[in-house]
C-alpha cells in the first residue's frame, strides 16, 4: 500500500512538472521569438528564417525607437499617468469598497448598481462629451478619472474587506478610533495582499492605456510611450508625420519594429512585477472567493 501511494505521488509530481513546463514554454517561447525578431535584420524576418535566435544581427529597430524625438517625454508621461492613476484608483476604490463591505442599509442596492456598470456603460461618445464638458480634454485628469474605479476590481476589494476580522475593528473602536482612522491605520496595513494585487492590475492598465490618450489628448507632447510607439509602428510612420529614412528602411522591417517596441514597452512592467509578486496570488484568490 505504501509503495503504491509513493508511486502515485511520483506520477502526480511528474505530470505536474510536465504541465508546468508546458505552460512556461507556451509563455516563454513567443517572448523569445519576439526578442529574436527584434534583433534580426529585415531580410531574415521577411524570409521567415527567425525562430528563437536572431538572424542577421542588427539594432536598427531599437535605434529607430530610441532616437525618436518624443520617446523620452513619452516614457515620462507614461510614468506620470501610471503613478498618479494608480494612486487615485487605489484611493477611490478603497474608500468605496470598505463601507460597501459592511452591513449598512441599502448595501445590496448599491452593489447591484456597481455590478450593473460591469455590463452596461455610457459609451464612448457620451463619455467624451462628459470629459469635454468638464473641461478635462488634453489634461492628465481626462485620461485618469474616467477609469478611476473599475467595477470588477471594486468587487474583489469588497469581498476581501468583507472577510476582514470584525474583532480587530471592534477593538480599534473601543480604543477611540473612528471608521476613517480604522481604515487607514488598521485595515490597510493588514491588507497588503489586496493592495499589491490592485496596484499590479492598475499599473498594467494605465501603462497600456494608449487609446484614451489618443481620444482625450490633443498635444503630442503629452502622449504616453504606448501611443508614440503605436504611431511609429503604424506603417513605420512617426508621430510628427516623417517617415523612416531610406537607410533605415533597408534594415528595419515592420515585424522587427513591432517586436522591438513590445520589448521596450513591456520591460518596465517586468521590472515592477517581482516586487509585488509574493502578495499578488494571495490577494487575487482571497478577494475572488471570500465574501
Give an overview in words.
By secondary structure, the protein is an all-alpha fold. It has one domain: MetI-like (MetI-like fold, Orthogonal Bundle), CATH 1.10.3720.10. The chain has 15 helices and no strands. Helix 4 packs across helix 11 (192-208), helix 9 packs across helix 10 (179-187) and helix 13 (225-233) runs antiparallel to helix 15 (254-289). The two termini are 41 Å apart. Mean pLDDT is 81; it is low at 237-243 and 287-291.
Distinctive features:
mainly alpha; MetI-like fold; 15 helices; 73% helix; 291 residues; disordered C terminus; single chain; flat
Topology:
Layout: H1 2-38, H2 42-46, H3 60-66, H4 71-100, H5 107-119, H6 124-133, H7 140-144, H8 151-162, H9 166-174, H10 179-187, H11 192-208, H12 210-216, H13 225-233, H14 246-251, H15 254-289
Helix pairs in contact: 1-15, 3-15, 4-8, 4-11, 4-13, 5-8, 8-15, 9-10, 11-15, 12-13, 13-15
E-strand count: 0
* SSE order: HHHHHHHHHHHHHHH
Q: Return residue spans where pLDDT drops below 50 for at least 5 consecutive residues.
A: 237-243, 287-291
Gyration radius (Cα, Å) is 24 Å
Q: Give the quaternary arrangement of the chains.
A: single chain
Main sheet characteristics = none
CATH class: Mainly Alpha
Q: What structural class do the secondary elements suggest?
A: mainly alpha
Say which CATH homologous superfamily is assigned: MetI-like
Helices, by number, come to 15
In percent, how helical is the residue content? Answer: over 70%
Going by CATH, the architecture would be Orthogonal Bundle
Distance between the termini: 41 Å
> Would you tell me which CATH topology applies?
MetI-like fold
- Share of β-strand residues: under 5%
Mean pLDDT: 81
Silhouette = flat
Overall number of structural domains? 1
Amino acid at each position: 500500500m505504501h509503495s503504491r501511494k509513493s508511486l502515485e505521488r511520483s506520477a502526480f509530481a511528474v505530470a505536474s512538472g510536465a504541465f508546468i513546463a508546458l505552460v512556461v514554454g507556451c509563455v516563454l517561447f513567443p517572448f523569445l521569438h519576439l526578442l529574436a525578431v527584434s534583433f534580426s535584420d529585415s531580410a531574415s524576418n521577411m524570409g521567415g528564417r527567425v525562430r528563437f535566435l536572431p538572424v542577421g544581427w542588427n539594432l536598427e529597430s531599437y535605434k529607430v525607437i530610441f532616437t525618436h524625438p518624443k520617446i523620452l517625454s513619452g516614457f515620462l508621461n507614461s510614468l506620470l499617468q501610471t503613478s498618479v492613476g494608480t494612486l487615485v484608483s487605489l484611493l477611490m476604490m478603497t474608500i468605496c469598497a470598505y463601507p460597501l463591505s459592511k452591513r449598512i442599509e441599502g448595501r445590496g442596492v448599491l452593489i447591484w448598481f456597481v455590478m450593473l456598470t460591469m455590463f452596461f456603460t455610457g459609451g464612448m461618445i457620451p463619455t467624451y462629451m462628459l470629459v469635454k464638458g468638464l473641461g478635462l480634454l488634453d489634461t492628465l485628469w481626462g485620461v485618469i478619472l474616467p477609469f478611476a474605479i473599475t467595477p470588477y476590481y471594486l468587487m474583489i476589494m469588497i469581498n476581501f474587506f468583507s472577510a476582514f476580522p470584525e474583532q480587530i475593528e471592534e477593538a480599534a473602536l473601543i480604543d477611540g478610533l473612528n471608521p476613517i482612522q480604522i481604515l487607514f491605520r488598521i485595515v490597510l496595513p493588514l491588507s497588503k495582499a489586496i493592495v499589491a494585487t490592485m496596484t499590479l492590475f492598475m499599473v498594467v492598465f494605465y501603462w497600456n492605456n494608449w487609446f484614451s490618450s489618443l481620444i482625450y489628448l490633443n498635444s503630442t507632447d503629452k502622449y504616453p510611450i504606448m501611443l508614440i510607439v503605436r504611431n511609429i509602428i503604424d506603417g513605420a510612420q512617426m508621430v510628427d508625420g516623417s517617415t523612416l529614412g531610406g537607410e533605415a528602411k533597408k534594415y528595419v522591417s515592420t515585424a522587427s519594429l513591432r517586436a522591438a517596441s513590445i520589448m521596450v514597452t513591456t520591460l518596465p512592467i517586468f521590472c515592477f512585477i517581482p516586487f509585488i509578486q509574493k502578495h499578488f496570488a494571495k490577494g487575487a484568490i482571497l478577494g475572488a472567493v471570500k465574501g
